Amino acid sequence: MNTHLVFLLAYAALLTLLGLGIGRLVKSSGTFFVAGRKLGPVLVFSTLLAANIGAGSTVGAAGLGYRDGLSAWWWVGSAGIGSIVLGLWVGPKMWEAAARHNLYTVGDYLERRYNKTVRGIVAALLWVGTLAILAGQLIALAWVLHVVAGLPKYAGCLVGGAVMTVYFTAGGLLASAWINILQLIVLLVGFALAIPLILSSVGGFGGLMTSVADPGALNFWSHGSSGWIYLLLLGPAFIISPGLLQKIYGARDRRTVQIAVTSQGVVLLFFAFVPVFFGMAAKVLYPELADQELALPTLLKDTLPVYVGSLALAAIFSAEISSADAILFMLATSLSQDLYRRFFNPDASDRQVLMAARLAAVAGGVLGVALAIALPSVIGSLGIFYSLLSVSLFVPVIAGLYLRRSGTPEALAAIGGGILFLLGSHLLPGGGFGLLRPFVIGLIGAAGAFLLVHLFMRWRKPVKS
Question: pLDDT digit string (tens) for 292-348?
Fold first, then answer.
């Protein structure tokens, strides 16, 4: 009997049953979208941290650590830095706007600040990009099940997709927030037990450092394709991610946002060393892996005692599922509130919007599974999402909060300029100019387009006599 597989399937069944149970309490779209705006610091902290420690922060980051060494810290560390900015400055202002105007989604904010055209364009773009990040979580789950039970990739994607879709569709943010606490406990306990045992197997930190064959792997700032450049890709994305902002909408007050969001950002800064350590240890113990993203599940399965290994593998399972439900949250709310209610059925009842949200979650789950089967890697799929999110949404959201004289023309210019520069940079030899990678060029294009249109609109404005 495969103990690891039995443990993972039992854990998946538990998550599904809990989601269905909590889902019986959800009777309105307000509860589904923002949990009645009653979440305290513990629930906001746990649901955000669980969402942020996902495929990229575990399987993907360990794979980068396996390939590039210490500089892979910046993949998760950049998310922590972005989260701190979100907690101290952007998040509280967004919460105040949401509470004052009863906003459910980032699309609600964009329409109120600009117009419905901006809302519709961003919602459509995010649906495309969000499916890519959902696929990344499912690919990571598939790698775990492949290592544990030899399941083919498509089967692992189907199992993970079924679990996340059932429990989130039932309970929305309310189910997600409570189940994320369990997932976070499993994650932290599993990794806490695994670290000293794996450390012992490589001769301690000293043994790990001396066993590294490539000296460049000990460079913290940059090595291979990893390094501080990730801050430009991931920092903006974690400041304005619709999934994170909409979880913040569920907080009960401004102080909850500041405490919970900033605290989980600090935790991410420290957690960022964990997957890098796992990846570097796997490189020492298993230097010839066929795929770098097999590093973490292989390390946990083959290095640890069976029951500790099962708990550690469940920790990865928790990480991917908790991030996946945050992504379904974005998909469901965006389609039902930003597209269905706003453009197709403005007179929809609360019951109809709730049904649309649940159907959108199911559709998102199915499409995410299909894309996960098609895409090759976790980091590759996440890169699509973070690039698109940063170049299309960062400038309009931040400018909307802090530049009161900016309007719809500037927002549309920023979205169009960011996307055009992002796509155009991919046509360049090597995909950019050194450090000016496509996502950096896209951000510069978005900011430049916004500024040019803003100056033009100010110039056209007649001077009062």
Answer: 999 999 999 999 999 898 889 988 887 887 777 777 877 887 888 888 988 889 999
What global pTM score does this model have? 0.90
Spatial CA neighbour of 275 closest among 75, 82, 47, 80: 75
CA 89 – CA 447 distance, rounded (Å): 20
Using H for helix, E for strand and C for coil, what is the string for the chain?
A: CCHHHHHHHHHHHHHHHHHHHHHCCCCCHHHHHHHHHCECHHHHHHHHHHHHCCCHHHHHHHHHHHHHHHHHHHHHHHHHHHHHHHHHHHHHHHHHHHHHHCCCCHHHHHHHHCCHHHHHHHHHHHHHHHHHHHHHHHHHHHHHHHHHHCCCHHHHHHHHHHHHHHHHHHHHHHHHHHHHHHHHHHHHHHHHHHHHHHHHHCCHHHHHHHHCCCHHHHCCCEECCEECCHHHHHHHHHHHCHHHHHHHHCECCHHHHHHHHHHHHHHHHHHCHHHHHHHHHHHHHCCCCCCHHHHHHHHHHHHCCHHHHHHHHHHHHHHHHHHHHHHHHHHHHHHHHHHHHHHHCCCCCHHHHHHHHHHHHHHHHHHHHHHHHHCCCHHHHHHHHHHHHHHHHHHHHHHHHHCCCCCHHHHHHHHHHHHHHHHHHCCCHHHCECCECHHHHHHHHHHHHHHHHHHHHHHHCCCCC
CA angle 351, 168, 275 (to 5 degrees): 155
Q: Please give the domain boundaries of the chain with CATH numbers for all domains.
A: 3-377 (1.20.1730.10)
**Amino acid at the residue 122:** V
Written as six digits, the tokens of 36 are: 């009645």
* Beta strands 226-227; 222-223: pairing state: antiparallel
The tens digit of pLDDT for each residue in 211-263 reads: 998 999 999 999 999 999 999 999 999 999 988 998 899 999 999 999 999 99
**Beta-bridge partners for 227:** 222
